[in-house]
Design a protein that fits this description.
Radius of gyration: 23 Å
Helix content: over 70%
InterPro entries: Poly_Biosynth_Transport, Polysacc_synth
Largest sheet: none
Keywords: Cell membrane, Membrane, Signal, Transmembrane, Transmembrane helix
Structural class: mainly alpha
Number of strands: 0
Membrane topology: Multi-pass membrane protein
Protein name: Lipopolysaccharide biosynthesis protein
Mean pLDDT: 78
Pfam families: Polysacc_synt
Order of helices and strands: HHHHHHHHHHHHHHHHHHHHHH
C-alpha cells in the first residue's frame, strides 16, 4: 500500500508540476516579451478565467475524486463519473456563451465598460480576448472534471500524460503567440494548453462502458451536499488564495503594480508548490482509509505527510526569500527589481501556508467540506476588507502584507479544526524544529549574497544553505525514522540521476 501511494504521489507530482510550470512559464514568457504592464494585463485576464472556472465548476472535480475513490469497481466508477458530467458540460457551455455575448456586445459598442477595467487595447483586440478567455474557461472546466475522475480512479499515469501534453502545447503556443500577436496571442496559448484534458473528457463521456447502473439516490444526495459546500468553499477560497489582490492593485496602482505582484506570486509558487505536488494522491488515499474505518492510519499518515511537506517547503520558501535580490532580476529582468521586497514576503509566508495542503485533503476526505466553506467565507471577508483599505493605502507592499496575514490566519484556523475537531494532532513540535533549521539555512544563503556580488553568489548560497539545513535537521531530530524511510522509498521511484541527487539529503539527515 505504501509503495502504491508513493508511486501515485510521484505521478501526481509530475502532473501537477507540469501544470505549475505551465503557469509560471506563461508569466515568465509574458514578462520577457510583453514587459511589466503586459504581464499585468495577462495576469488579470487569466485571473478572470480562474474565478469563472471556480464558480462554474460547481465543486464537482473534488467531489468526483472523493466519491469515485470510494466507489469500488471500475463500472460503478465510470457510472458515477458519467452522472455528473452533464452539469459540468452545461456549465462550460454557459461560460462560453457568456463570453460570446460579451464579445458581441463589445462589437456593437454597447458594453465597452466590460473590458475597460482590463485591457487598454483597440476594440477589435478586446473582442478577440473575450472569445479566447471564454474558450480557455470552457476547456478548463471540462479538463478539471476529467482529471478529478482520474484521480478518484487513481489513474495517475493518464493524468501525467494529459498534463504533460498540455504543458508542451501551452509553452510553445504562448511563446509563438506572444511574439506574433502580443497579449491576445499569449492568452490563446493558454487556451490551447487546456485542450488535451478537455478532449479527453469528451472522449470519456462518449465511452459506452459508462452506461452502467446509475448510483443510488442516497449516494447522489451525499455527493450533492458535499459538492455544494465544496463549491461554496472554493468560491470563498478564491478570494484568499487566487490573487484577488491584483484586482485592487489594478484599480489603485495600475497594471505595472499587477505585473510586479505577479512576479512575486510566481516565484512563491515555484518555491513551494513543487513539494505540494506530492500530495495529489492523498485525498483518494485518505478517503479509502476512512471508508475502511482505519482512523489510526489516517492520523499517522496526516502527521507524517505534514512533516515531510514542511521538511521540503520550509527551506525552499525561506531560502528563496533570502536570495530574492539576485533571483528576481535574473528570472524576470531588471525592470522587475522593485518587486523584491513584496516577493520575499510572499515566498516566506507561502512556505508556512503550504503545510496546510495535507490538512485540506484530510478535511475533504472526512466529508467536512462545510468547514472549508465557513473558514473561507471569513477569509473572503478579510480579503475584501483589506482590498478596500490596505491596498489603496500602501500599494504593492500593502497587498503583500494583506495576503500574508490572511493566509496565516486561515492556516491557524485549519490546524485548530483538524487537531481539536477531527482528532488528528498536528506535529507542532517537529514543525517548529524544521522552521528553525530552515531559518538558519536561509541566513547562511543571505550571508553568501553579502560576500559575493551578482548571480555568482548563488553558486555558493545554495550549497551552503543545503548543508546547514541538513545538519540542523539531523541535530534537532526533526524527522522520525518512519519519515526517513518514506523519503528513501520516494527517492527509489525517481529516475536514476534524480535518485542519486537525493541520496546526499538522506545522508545529511540520518541520525
Amino acid at each position: 500500500m505504501a509503495q502504491r501511494v508513493a508511486r501515485n504521489s510521484l505521478l501526481s507530482a509530475i502532473a501537477s508540476g507540469a501544470t505549475m510550470l505551465a503557469s509560471a512559464g506563461t508569466m515568465i514568457i509574458a514578462a520577457r516579451t510583453l514587459g511589466v504592464e503586459g504581464t499585468g494585463i495577462v495576469t488579470l485576464s487569466l485571473w478572470l478565467v480562474t474565478m469563472a472556472v471556480t464558480i462554474a465548476g460547481l465543486g464537482l472535480p473534488t467531489t468526483v475524486t472523493r466519491y469515485v475513490a470510494e466507489a469500488g469497481d471500475a463500472a460503478r466508477q465510470r457510472a458515477l463519473a458519467r452522472r455528473f458530467f452533464r452539469p459540468t458540460l452545461g456549465a462550460a457551455l454557459c461560460l462560453l456563451a457568456l463570453a460570446g455575448s460579451a464579445a458581441a456586445a463589445l462589437a456593437t459598442g454597447r458594453v465597452d465598460v466590460i473590458w475597460s477595467a482590463l485591457a487598454p487595447e483597440t476594440l477589435g483586440a478586446r473582442i478577440e480576448i473575450w472569445l479566447i478567455l471564454g474558450l480557455t474557461g470552457a476547456a478548463q472546466i471540462l479538463g478539471q472534471y476529467h482529471l478529478g475522475v482520474l484521480r478518484g480512479q487513481q489513474d495517475f499515469r493518464a493524468i501525467a500524460a494529459l498534463t504533460l501534453a498540455g504543458f508542451g502545447v501551452q509553452m510553445v503556443a504562448t511563446l509563438v503567440g506572444a511574439l506574433a500577436f502580443g497579449i491576445a496571442g499569449a492568452l490563446a496559448g493558454c487556451a490551447l494548453g487546456a485542450l488535451p484534458a478537455a478532449l479527453a473528457a469528451a472522449r470519456a463521456a462518449l465511452d459506452p462502458r459508462g452506461r452502467a447502473e446509475p448510483p443510488s439516490d442516497a449516494l447522489v444526495t451525499r455527493m450533492r451536499r458535499f459538492a455544494l459546500y465544496t463549491w461554496a468553499g472554493s468560491v470563498m477560497s478564491a478570494f484568499v488564495w487566487a490573487r484577488i489582490e491584483i484586482y485592487f492593485l489594478q484599480r489603485s496602482e495600475g497594471y505595472e503594480a499587477v505585473g510586479l505582484f505577479t512576479a512575486g506570486l510566481t516565484l512563491a509558487s515555484l518555491a513551494t508548490q513543487g513539494p505540494l505536488l506530492l500530495t495529489g494522491a492523498l485525498l483518494p488515499h485518505f478517503a479509502n482509509a476512512h471508508a475502511r474505518g482505519a482512523g489510526d492510519r489516517v492520523r499517522e499518515a496526516y502527521a507524517s505527510a505534514t512533516r515531510l511537506i514542511a521538511f521540503l517547503v520550509f527551506p525552499a520558501g525561506l531560502g528563496l526569500a533570502a536570495i530574492m535580490p539576485v533571483v528576481m532580476p535574473l528570472v524576470f529582468g531588471e525592470s522587475f527589481r522593485p518587486a523584491v521586497p513584496v516577493a520575499s514576503l510572499l515566498v516566506a509566508v507561502a512556505a508556512i501556508g503550504a503545510t496546510s495542503a495535507v490538512g485540506t485533503h484530510l478535511v475533504n476526505a472526512l466529508e467536512r467540506s462545510d468547514f472549508v466553506f465557513y473558514s473561507s467565507l471569513c477569509g473572503a471577508v478579510l480579503a475584501l476588507t483589506a482590498g478596500f483599505t490596505l491596498v489603496p493605502a500602501f500599494g504593492l507592499i500593502g497587498a503583500g502584507a494583506a495576503r500574508a496575514l490572511i493566509q496565516l490566519a486561515m492556516v491557524g484556523a485549519g490546524l485548530w479544526f483538524i487537531t481539536r475537531r477531527l482528532g488528528c494532532p498536528a506535529p507542532f513540535r517537529d514543525l517548529g524544529k524544521l522552521f528553525v533549521a530552515a531559518s538558519l539555512a536561509a541566513l547562511a544563503a543571505r550571508s553568501c549574497l553579502h560576500l559575493i556580488p551578482g548571480p555568482l553568489a548563488l553558486l555558493a548560497a545554495l550549497p551552503a544553505a543545503a548543508l546547514v539545513y541538513g545538519i540542523c535537521v539531523r541535530r534537532l531530530h526533526a524527522l522520525t525514522a518512519a519519515d526517513r524511510d518514506r523519503l528513501r522509498g520516494a527517492l527509489s521511484l525517481l529516475p536514476g540521476p534524480l535518485g542519486l541527487c537525493g541520496r546526499p539529503v538522506l545522508l545529511l539527515i540520518r541520525n
